[in-house]
Structure formats: C-alpha cells, structure tokens
Write a structure and sequence with these properties.
There is one protein chain. The protein has two domains: 93 residues, no CATH class; 105 residues. It is 40% helix and 15% strand. It is built from nine helices and five strands, in the order H-H-H-H-H-H-E-E-E-H-E-H-H-E. Helix 4 packs across helix 5, helix 5 packs across helix 6 and helix 7 packs parallel to helix 8. The radius of gyration is 26 Å and the shape is flat.
C-alpha cells in the first residue's frame, strides 16, 4: 500500500488515498520517516536487515548452494544466534534457495491460453449431502525407492477419500482407477447431479480422463492412455 501511495500521491494526495484504502493517514508519514532514518525502524526490522547481510555472505561464500539448514548451522558456528525459522523466512524474502539434488518433479504444466471445460463449482467446495461434489487431484510422494504418484478422489461433504491409486509413472490409467474405485465404493445414482471437479490442466492425456462422464468411465478405459504430467481440467458432471 505504501508503494501505491508513493506512485499516486502526486495526483490524488495522501489523505484521499488513505480514506479509500484500509490504512490510517498517520501510517504513511511514519513509514516515510523510517525510510529517511533507519534508526527509527523497529528492533525486529533492524535485526532482520543485519541478518540478511550475514545470510547472503554465508550463502555466496559457499557457492550459492547452501540451503536453510546449512546456512543456519554456519551462522551458529560463527556465534550468530538466530532461529532456523528466521533464516528460512529471510532467505525466502531474499529469494535464496539451496541446491536440490536430483531431477525436479513437475506435476503441473499450466497454460492459461488453452481452452478448458466449464467450471461447475466456482470455488464453492461445500455439499449438502454425500455424492454431490467430488474433488480430485494427484501429487507425488518421495519414498526410499524413488518418487511415486498418488491420485485421490475426495467427497466434499464427508471430507474423506473415497478413491485413490498409486503409480510409479504418471499415466491417465491410474487416475481413472482412483475414480473407478470411488464409483464402486459410493455407487452414485445415474442422473443424481454428481459433479467430479479437478483443477485446470492443459495436456490432452489427462483432459480426456478428467472429462469423462461417470457412466461411460469403463468404456473410456479401453481407449489408449497417453502419458500426462499435468493436473486435471475443471469439471465433469454425471
């Protein structure tokens, strides 16, 4: 808000902007005084500024590969007492991140320009009774033998998982397996208005599986199942 006032104060003035925004008129002069005189900053802000210098020094001295844990331990070895959560907060604020071993796993490839089905839920994840709204997603979990993908279907009314599957590879088949398990477990009545909602995706393999009506789901499994690496598109209704 302070940056917005700085950008528009010459046109509208400070007090008219403060009347529109949820901010007291005395707040802006206080921030301006602190920027002019750093000694007037709160104690936490002054300590954060000093810690940021030390964190960046340790981070750059170790080839920019140290993460939160190693930066925190190095600061402790140097006698700088600081909480690990504080180091994590300041590194996040500075955009510093340690090197991660292995290949990063991506389950979402977003494309806002791609067409998507109609959103039948409109962010209203509440249901008056069971088998009215199911929400689905899939993610990956690190195990001792590597990453595995987990797909699950949740009943929005009961807040419980009604179908799930685990796979070593991200194929549309294991998502359909989770949906079929939910259908077998709950056995919704045809034409009851059940909505199966998934978040937006762009790749055809997963779109095909996510937009199936609940009735012909078994027939859909007999078609080829291309690989996908994105989360599902919006909603399918039955």
């Amino acid at each position: 808000m302070i940056a917005f006032i700085d950008a528009h104060r010459a046109v509208y003035g400070v007090e008219p902007i403060c009347r529109v925004l949820p901010i007291a008129p005395s707040t802006y002069p206080a921030h301006a005084a602190r920027r002019a005189d750093p000694k007037r900053l709160p104690a936490r802000a002054r300590r954060d500024a000093a810690l940021m210098i030390e964190i960046r020094r340790v981070y750059e001295a170790n080839f920019c590969v140290y993460g939160v844990r190693k930066v925190w331990r190095q600061l402790s070895r140097e006698g700088i007492r600081v909480a690990r959560c504080t180091v994590a907060r300041l590194m996040r604020a500075m955009g510093l991140q340690g090197a991660v071993r292995g290949k990063p796993v991506r389950t979402t490839i977003s494309d806002t320009a791609a067409p998507c089905p109609l959103d039948r839920v409109n962010r209203q994840f509440q249901a008056p009774r069971p088998n009215v709204l199911w929400v689905s997603d899939f993610t990956y979990v690190a195990t001792w033998v590597g990453f595995v993908y987990v797909a699950f279907v949740i009943d929005a009314y009961a807040r419980r998982i009604v179908g799930w599957r685990v796979s070593r590879t991200a194929h549309a088949s294991f998502v359909l397996d989770a949906l079929e398990q939910a259908l077998h477990e709950r056995r919704p009545v045809q034409g009851s208005g059940l909505v199966h909602h998934l978040d937006r995706g762009v790749q055809p393999g997963f779109k095909r599986s996510s937009q199936q009506l609940c009735a012909p789901i078994s027939a859909a499994r007999q078609r080829p199942r291309p690989v996908f690496s994105t989360q599902a598109s919006y909603a399918a209704c039955c």
